[in-house]
Design brief:
The structure is a homotetramer of 319-residue chains.
Chain A: H1 3-13, E1 39-42, H2 46-50, H3 52-58, H4 61-86, E2 91-92, H5 99-114, E3 123-124, H6 127-156, E4 162-164, E5 168-173, E6 176-185, E7 191-206, E8 209-217, E9 223-226, E10 230-236, H7 248-253, E11 257-266, E12 271-280, E13 284-286, E14 288-290, E15 294-295, E16 302-305, E17 312-314
Parallel strand pairs in A: 5-13
Antiparallel strand pairs in A: 2-3, 4-6, 5-6, 6-10, 7-8, 7-9, 7-11, 11-12, 14-17, 15-16
Helix pairs in contact in A: 3-6, 4-5, 4-6
Protein name (chains A, B, C, D): Potassium transporter
Organism (chains A, B, C, D): Emticicia agri
Main location (chains A, B, C, D): membrane
């Protein structure tokens, strides 16, 4: 193989995962602990920025229902104005005693048309008012068809709740040490075929320039078929580990970050799930091991105490 | 490879599947025969415990419709009280002859608003009553949008019905013996690309402590493209099988369990399906073989008798 | 490796695909040409037999809408009877002139309640009639929520339309011959990541008993990324092909069948699609090759003539 | 291996990707730059041509809502005619003063039935009119169930917005050169597990005939786990690259085309996404490299300027 090809081969074997090497600013964390990326887009088209379906799916429930309510009131207001401009005398049954009562009866008639409840105490009579109310009922049905679609989109979105230990530990493991963190499914539904990948990133000097590099860390067990209890992910600190000679100080100095990507399947719906997490150097605890989460108290069932996911106790490391 | 790495390698090669080694209580079965895990969560957040969409999807149909009915009645009751407090004189058409008739007319008006049927015999007149009924119709539409979403979620949930033989058999196979169990798709829709994995778990003494260990069992055929009739899963008891020297007594003594995980694709919807099952030592029959399920009675079509999935007859084992 | 293991190894390497070896009746075709299996289930539970969601999804549109209409009429009939039994005098506005008119007004009132149109010409007044109509509107909304879910299930079901050539050909190929068949996507939407597997099945004498055996046939190209035009699937008849020494007569005598399983992805919805097809020995044409389907007529666009998918012309085979 | 098998082996190793070798017309581009194929189908069945669900999903929103409006008006018109033919005297409340007013009241009554708003100012009285309005309300509910399904289908369709650089570059890379193009996700939602494959196609003389051939191009990095910023896809021009000896002139002369297929997963919904793109020889820039898109301006967050995806500056190639 020629020298040229060797260089190419080296580059090919480098692990990048999609972050690139140019993002080297030490103060900035690329992958936030909630699994979001610390990147903002500029120059998006309006449509891409709006991304309206996505926004309606991921917004909190309170905001979602508030927007539905506001749109409902706004539509009623617009149609009420329209009936008022056409002339409320074309709405049979409107209380004509005052402008105030006329407007509000138009408003309530609008609400009765939009929701298709149509009591009939107020009903359209003239040509224009009848046309507008025909359209309004269609608009109402469209709006509720849209809301139905959005609601199902929100329901069916895979939304796993994985709890992670607050800290990653450097713990004794067999007769060496290992990097460990622990996770557990907070929900009672089963997650299966779980796979985890762990990437170690730090800033290194290359040709005198600080460059962020990425290293995949091999795991004792990267895949499990079932995930009924807790799972401690273990990267053994063997001689070939990129962490073998690291110290708390060297990790802090090189702005080290451990990035975790998890995928699996939600057993109830057979939906794929994807979860990300990360630990920074300062979230590592050196010389500790996790304490058990499962209680064996003599009952017929295993008890898993979720609040203990981050619990650890000091432990002497192997040297 | 150093001694350290060998230990790591051993650990890496151990098959765990996500159960961990600390759950050793003999009286407890981890994977129940219905495919559920025998684990209870403690300390869940309210939201994770509620897991409301999941619950509405997996509950029985009777409970689902009962809850819909109760929510409907409850909402009507709440709105009826509200109209009553506002004053039923603001609902035109209410039968004012008694408190009883007033309340029930408010209740029926509420039902007519919530469902948007709005006959109009009773209709709101005052400002407050009109506002409440405007909101009630919106609430009704939201409620039915939610129910529509839940219904589709229930419909579209992959829900395979795989029948398993009641027993796993130790049966003669070629010139040795094999562990066998049989399964069949109860439904007429096709399952394709089926994969099965079989894990043998037992309690062993390690360093004087009882520890549950897991062993993957190799299968004669772990994957089939089609699954139109019955499928007998076969683990040959060759010399390298973890079961090679086991006896009925040793399996019972070590609290042996055979755990099965199946995945495939439902051909109608191209949905992934996942099924789990397990056999305990006492569900094994030694010296038996399954009898055929397919009838060949001269018709133009093969007849598959599902009730025979567990049928077997005695057979001499090879030694 | 011991003799025992060799037998096991042979069995393991046999290709079965899920059909089993016991189905040997020559008159019966296991995989029908429309991709359905020729198997009938006996002893299904009522629920598995009903398989109601599945049936509603795969039934023809005409049947689907007919059932919706019949259920609508049936529900109206049942509720009309109920109102009649309660007493139509509790429905204000009913035409009391005859039993006939009373029943039909109860029926139309029922329809107006079930669809929630609720004109109000007829409206409930008494306690019992009001309760029944409250429930009927709820039933109506549930029914339409169910229909909405079924409609979306029908819409979103992957339903590819792949056209196959009527015949598989034994055609000259390079300097040997090959088994070929041709397929094309009838729809204009793109299918991508297509994979095809081809299985040859025939009845052989084993230990004096006729036994159906299955052989995978290697393909010149088993996977394509894109499928914009036609695709001719080619199994070269090399010396290691299970078909190498077969003749039209030997194939007919051994009840040969070629089974095809195709999977891919519909580009519009990213849905997985699965298609099956089969050719029997009598559907083979020896000494022919497919004629082109793509017309190059000087326009800016390629024209694919779907009706030509099965067109072939005689061709001399290589020997 | 015999000579026959060698020929077969060669054919097997050729990369075709599903395009076939017969499409050689130089003026026609097979894969258009928007990812669509330049192929038109002839002889489709009406149903396959109609492909109605697909059309309703991919049509622009304006067209979609316009069709809903037109169908609504058309249905109202048809039912209005029906009521008119039955006799509007069977619709209580119709303004009988003129044929014009009779028709429009029938029309508005129809709209009130179809949307199930049913004010009741106009209501059916006779047998025929009551039957028609019962059916109309059912039709209306079916129509809105269909629209709800279509809306959700439109919402949930994976619809990634990947921006590509206008040009592919031949850029210096390590100590050789490479073919490069750049892409970025315009939306803020995360795309994960991205895979890219790149195919080079050109017309070659084979046996004196022009034939289009396809070559897969190996990439420095064909898969990334995350895609938070921009991704420059790199094909190194090593000695074994099919592009190694190409020049701008030779590529233009052989009608070269670079076809790109990308797949990944949308993190929000765990939906698979598929994107295609292509560059023609004239869209290549020789001797240039991309300029950075990420701004590091001292803020807490990385800024990605999407408008710069195609920006490049001249660069000397390595020879």
């Amino acid at each position: 193989m020629s020298k040229k090809n060797l260089l190419v081969e080296n580059e090919r074997n480098r692990q990048d995962l999609g972050f690139g090497t140019k993002l080297t600013d030490r103060r900035k964390r690329l992958l936030k602990q909630d699994g979001q990326f610390n990147v903002k887009r500029k120059g998006q088209s309006f449509e891409a920025w709006l991304n309206i379906y996505n926004r309606f799916i991921i917004m909190p429930w309170k905001i979602f229902f508030l927007i539905v309510l506001l749109v409902y009131l706004l539509l009623n207001f617009i149609f009420a104005i329209t009936y008022y401009l056409i002339g409320v005398e074309h709405l049979i049954g409107v209380n004509m005693t005052s402008t105030h009562s006329q407007f509000w009866d138009a408003f309530f008639f609008s609400a009765q048309s939009l929701t298709t409840v149509g009591y009939g105490r107020i009903s359209p009579d003239g040509f224009a008012a009848s046309w507008v109310s025909s359209i309004e009922s269609l608009v109402g049905l469209m709006m509720f068809a849209i809301v139905t679609g959005l609601l199902y989109g929100r329901f069916s979105r895979p939304n796993p709740r994985i709890l992670f230990s607050d800290n990653a530990l450097i713990a004794p493991y067999l007769n060496i040490n290992a990097l460990m963190f622990r996770m557990v499914n907070e929900r009672s539904n089963q997650l299966i075929n779980m796979e985890v990948s762990l990437v170690f990133s730090k800033i290194e000097e290359r040709n005198g320039l600080p460059t962020r590099r990425y290293y995949g860390l091999s795991l004792e067990r990267a895949k499990v078929n079932f995930f009924p209890t807790d799972w401690t992910i273990v990267h053994p600190l063997t001689e070939d580990s990129p962490l073998y000679n690291e110290t708390p100080e060297s990790l802090a100095a090189s702005d080290a970050e451990f990035m975790i990507a998890i995928q699996g399947v939600d057993d109830t719906f057979a939906d794929a799930i994807h979860v990300r997490h990360s630990y920074k150097a300062e979230e590592l605890v050196w010389g500790a091991k996790f304490t058990p989460m499962v209680e064996e108290d003599g009952e017929e069932i295993y008890i898993l105490d979720l609040k203990k996911v981050g619990n650890y106790r000091p432990a002497n490391l192997n040297y």
